Amino acid sequence: MLKAARQREIVTLLQGGGIVEVATLAARFQTSPITVRRDLIELQERGVLARTRGGAIPGQEIYTEGWARYESVSYAERENVNHRQKRAIAELAAQSVSDGDCILINGGTTCRNLAEALRGHHNLHVVTNGLTVAMELGKSRNATVYLLPGIVDLRKMTSVSRPESGALENITVRAAFLGIHGISATGGISMLTPEEAAMNRAFVDAAQTVNILVDSSKFQAQAMFRIAHLEKVTRVFTDDGISDEMHGALEKAGVQVSIAHLDESDQQ
After folding, report:
1. For the whole model, what pTM was predicted?
2. Domains in the chain and their CATH numbers?
3. Which residues face 49 on adjacent strands?
4. How many CB atoms lie within 10 A of CB 111?
5. What DSSP designation does 130 have?
6. What confidence tens digit (pLDDT) does each residue in 198-222 have?
7. What separation, in Å, do the N-terminal and C-terminal C-alpha atoms of the chain show?
8. Is 118 helix (H, G, I), strand (E, B) or coil?
9. Which of the four pLDDT bands, split at 50, 70 and 90, describes residue 68?
């Protein structure tokens, strides 16, 4: 069994029973106790569990529940969540892109909406790991699209890899537009998996400015793996559901906040 599959099953067992034992897991996975201990150490470092003598108990329950939801929701279902807000945010963000721009867009449903909003632009050069982003931009024939390699994640319709340091050092874009899982004033921007966080960290390093596209629900979302602190973020595009407290915290951190207001037809 692959490590990722073992660790997901360990999380599931913790959610169901509250405790796991090394010997039992080794027999279940037909592997050595040393391998199981390494899995538990790694999961403890992520905050998913707390190791005990001979086993482990649940750690941050919010994270494990979030991981379970992330694993179970399809891309099509994500498209329907806050879709009016995502569309309004994408249309606002598209106004900051000029014809002839060189930009980077990551994958996800909000960024697919951005790609759709950009189809009227001309001579764009877009680097992306989003399969649906590439498909949307390809419909216009007005953009040159560079699709990054990686393992396909059907939950987000992206190609995901864990690039080594400097892997994208030969790519420079004016702006990156990133959809993320969570954002907070203290934790910065984050994703649910280390691979996604590492890839988006490389995107941040490749861009002169970093733009975050998030509907207001993401300010309450929990994600463990940090991409970057807010000092790396230039602007946040969000909807009018953002709280005054969060709005103020972002601006205090030096982040520009652009708010997409839903008109009456959007809210119907």
Report:
1. 0.74
2. 3-72 (1.10.10.10), 75-267 (3.40.50.1360)
3. 58
4. 26
5. B
6. 999 999 999 999 999 999 888 866 6
7. 48
8. helix
9. low
